[in-house]
Amino acid sequence: xxxxxxxxxxxxxxxxxxxxxxxxxxxxxxxxxxxxxxxxxxxxxxxxxxxxxxxxxxxxxxxxxxxxxxxxxxxxxxxxxxxxxxxxxxxxxxxxxxxxxxxxxxxxxxxxxxxxxxxxxxxxxxxxxxxxxxxxxxxxxxxxxxxxxxxxxxxxxxxxxxxxxxxxxxxxxxxxxxxxxxxxxxxxxxxxxxxxxxxxxxxxxxxxxxxxxxxxxxxxxxxxxxxxxxxxxxxxxxxxxxxxxxxxxxxxxxxxxxxxxxxxxxxxxxxxxxxxxxxxxxxxxxxxxxxxxxxxxxxxxxxxxxxxxxxxxxxxxxxxxxxxxxxxxxxxxxxxxxxxxxxxxxxxxxxxx
Length: 353
Hints:
alpha/beta; single chain; two-stranded antiparallel sheet; 9-stranded mixed sheet; 13 strands
């Protein structure tokens, strides 16, 4: 029997996502047929029918899906880290369970990495799964970007992320305006294809984040250590989004605000740390006031709790901060947007990047 060293392992982290697996996994199998690719489902201790769904899909699959089973839910970050400890392929893909892929999606990504050894990770163009945007009766279907990644991620100097195709809550229609291969600051955790060795050398996703912002934090480390990240729009996938937590749920707000502050503390150079955190404190409490004025008391409470949790965790992050700064060749990567996306949005009324 000839052993084939895997070029790429497509790793889908699942937790009680039987419905998502049943809907989206067949497209991943259909469009990931190359002999040097494998599909891996890492299950975070699911209690639903997820494993039965995988068995059902495997019965008709030409190439069986590999499974990695955990006894408990480790969250997005630690779940992927534990799964990738068992991956030896040259490249790995972190793929959400609610993503449908298209023909050639993976080959475009791995070919780009093959040709550009200075690039650590790439992402495809991420469109919204169509049922979320049903057109009016008789109208042509509209292709829209998806919130979590769109056509490549960026970040402003205060730590607010945005994308080509999505700024704040505004999501653009896709008319080919971002069909150029482009360097980005972060690649989406919904579909990130990375060099497995670099993923591990940079420490993987921060398990203490649990979920949200963890891929941006990882990409910051990659950027700081001299690696490039790129969006390859020839590769196209469709993402449902909001599968685990709905947008603007208090839990999601808590994780996003807390993890954003932890990310800034971990990665910012000393000269920028204090002024940035002071500005963020002001803007975070502006957000609290906005939620209160909208009658969204639970969301306001989530932002305050996130700031409290950040201050409680900050001391445990000192060593991580020291390690990041010691290994950085560029502590404040030039690709970080030097303006405030919040100012651009509310004052300049900028809706595209």
